[in-house]
Design brief:
The model has no long low-confidence stretch (mean pLDDT about 95). The longest helix has 20 residues. This protein has about 375 residues and is of the alpha/beta class.
């Protein structure tokens, strides 16, 4: 019988948990016994009693939860003290932030942990139901707009009243990936006039289909990696981009920043000079703040005011929608775990599987992923 353990997350800003009630039931059909640390689901609205009723065993602390574990699920990488307590050969599955934590990779290899980083899941059709970046970014884009509107000192939709007309809020979304597209859709639903910028001309149709105006820099440069992500552009392009964003921002009430480059610091899109020229009372929500931010004035997990502009820097936006974020994340993980089992319900990792090749960081005492060897 396989034992799967889920610990309570240690990050003070993390409210998600790596399993949901539905995923507990699905994992049990593989012949898995599930052990969950007491209180792990509270932030997501799941009580210990609910987990017990679903079939999991609730344990009093981390040490008891890890007893006999062959698979450990997490949202964020466990701290060093937990890594040391894991049994050799255990499977660790979660979002492990390998680009930013070489010490973690070394520790995982040293302790002979077979670790899978879910954020490295290849973007192929077969893996869509396991794509944690998309499921969580979708909610982040939604919540970013909700936070912006709650902070903004004006109404979002146009309102016609006997006392006069209230103009709609103007929103600029920087980056039209999953988070950006959801931010556009949410802002439109709330009645805002929305514009969006992205270096990839290919997303123009998606932006316009949501009712937003696409702001673009005319260029012959390739702006997209083979994996579909935005890539870093030339200095000439960046100068033109900066001038266009500066001009556009001056008219906006809200800016939602979502631009990220995997493995690199977030690109600076909104400079201090641009912030200075924004309307007093305008709001910036920087979803890239954990990677350095798209605005240099952003501060991780702080809301700051600069020249009358409020800059929101929550590093973990999905956690602010924890109930739904947990549900989707847990489903991503359970779908992936299902691929690691045979039809006879035996755990068997196929090292030639594209999903395994894409996500496997460490195995048999070594760092095996091609990007991190």
């Amino acid at each position: 019988m396989i034992i799967l353990s889920v610990l309570k997350e240690t990050d003070p800003h993390e409210r998600r948990v790596a399993v949901s009630l539905d995923s507990v039931k699905k994992l049990m059909t593989l012949g898995i016994n599930i052990q969950i640390e007491a209180g792990a689901g509270v932030g997501s609205g799941i009580s210990d009693a609910a987990f017990t009723e679903a079939g999991a065993q609730v344990k009093s602390d981390a040490a008891e939860t890890l007893q006999g574990a062959q698979i450990v699920l997490c949202v964020n990488a466990p701290p060093a003290g937990i890594i040391e307590k894991l049994s050799e050969g255990v499977l660790l599955i979660g979002t492990l932030s390998p680009y930013n934590n070489r010490a973690l990779l070394d520790a995982l290899a040293k302790h002979n942990i077979t670790a899978f980083a879910m954020e490295l899941m290849p973007r192929i059709s077969r893996a869509q139901s396991m794509d944690v970046l998309s499921s969580q970014a979708n909610l982040a884009g939604y919540r970013a707009v909700i936070d912006a509107v709650a902070t903004l000192g004006k109404a979002t939709p146009m309102m016609m009243t006997a006392a006069g007309t209230v103009p709609p809020a103007k929103v600029l979304v920087l980056g039209a990936g999953v988070a950006g597209l959801q931010a556009i859709a949410t802002a439109k639903r709330l009645g805002a006039v929305v514009s969006a910028f992205d270096v990839r001309p290919a997303v123009k149709e998606q932006v316009q289909s949501l009712g937003a105006k696409f702001i673009e820099v005319p260029s012959e440069e390739s702006a997209e990696t083979k994996g579909g992500y935005a890539k870093e552009m030339s200095e000439d392009y960046k100068r033109k981009q900066s001038a266009l964003i500066h001009e556009t921002l001056a008219k906006m009430d809200v800016a939602i920043c979502t631009a990220l480059i995997p493995g690199k610091a977030a690109p600076i899109l909104i400079t201090e000079a641009m912030v200075k020229d924004m309307k007093p009372g305008a709001v910036i929500v920087d979803l890239a703040v954990a990677s350095g931010g798209n605005c240099p004035l952003s501060k991780p997990d702080e809301v700051v005011v600069a020249g009358g502009v409020t800059i929101v820097g929550h590093t973990n936006m999905p956690s602010r929608v924890a109930t739904d974020a947990t549900s989707l994340y847990a489903r991503n993980l359970s779908n992936f775990i299902n691929t690691l089992f045979t039809k006879e319900k035996q755990l068997a990792i196929n090292l030639e599987d594209e999903l395994v090749k894409g996500t496997l960081l460490t195995h048999q005492g070594s760092i095996v992923h091609s990007q991190f060897k």
